[in-house]
Structures are given as structure tokens and as C-alpha cells.
Amino acid sequence: MQQISTDGLLNKQELLKDIIRPTRRRKRFFNSLLDGIFFSLFFYALVMIIVLGYGVISFLTGNDSSQMIGEEAGMMIYLIYYIGYLTYFITFEHYFGKTLGKMVTNTRVVLMDGSQPKLIKLIMRSFARLIPLDFLSYLSKDPRGWHDTISDTMVIDDIPLYRVGPKAISQEKEEEVF
User: Which of 32, 71, 142, 168 is most buried, judged by most C-beta within 10 A?
Assistant: First the structure.
């Protein structure tokens, strides 16, 4: 049997390294900022719906709605916040591959090989975002945050397949908004 030489061939990772690479820190910053704004709007709307619903139920049943104050209300708000936070990221990244902030900056979440992450990876990624001081991980040379590293994911520029190639990459640098 004759051996075929693969000396001049590139493996999959070498072929994809120029196409699939983490986006810049500046875009990551805007992703975070925009997602913070979008999630805050979502969270405040959710809390208002719950508070109004609780008030209406209290009024209709004749209970005093002012009884749920202090520690109980604070714990409930924290619980709603964290469940909503995780739901926002997991839902958007699972169904669209990107959050609202990433839609604005034209980036998406992928596995290290460029494929769409499975739900379990997105759950890991979202829970890892809850690590205190996760934002400090962007100060290292690696443009990926701890939540990316833990889940083996990265955020890339969302380049359509018809634009892939050296010319497209150079055009993309010229078209940058963020």
C-alpha cells in the first residue's frame, strides 16, 4: 500500500484560524454594554409586571400587598434577576447564536471549531458569567473571557459564508463600526 504524503496539507484548525478568530475587545465591550441595557429593560419590565400582578391579586382578594416588604421582596427580586439573566443569554444564544447586543455588533457565539454550541455549553457559559470579576478576564492577552474559556466557546465576527476569504477579511476591517 502506498503512503500519501500530507506534508503540504493544512489541517482543519489551520484552515479556519484566519476565518474563525475571536472578535476584538472593543466589540466585546459594546456587546456587554448593549446586553446590559437590553437586559435591564427586560428585567425592569418583568419586575413591573410581577409587582402590578401582585397588586391586582392583592386588591381582588382583599389582602394587604404591603406585607411583602423587606427581606422577602429583596430575595424575590434577586431570584427574578438571576433567573432572568440566565434565561436571556441561554435563550438568545441557543435560538439565534447571538444576544441582542451581538445582533447590533454583528457577532455570534461559536465553539472553537466554528460550529454552533450545544445547549449544555451555553448553559455552562451563562452560569460562568456569574463569576465575580469575570470582566477582569479581558485584561489578559487572550480576547476570550473566563465564561468563554470554561465553555470552550468564543465570540466571532458574523461574516456570511460568501464573504469568507482574505479579501473579505480585509474588507471587514474597512467596514468596522465598532
Answer: 32
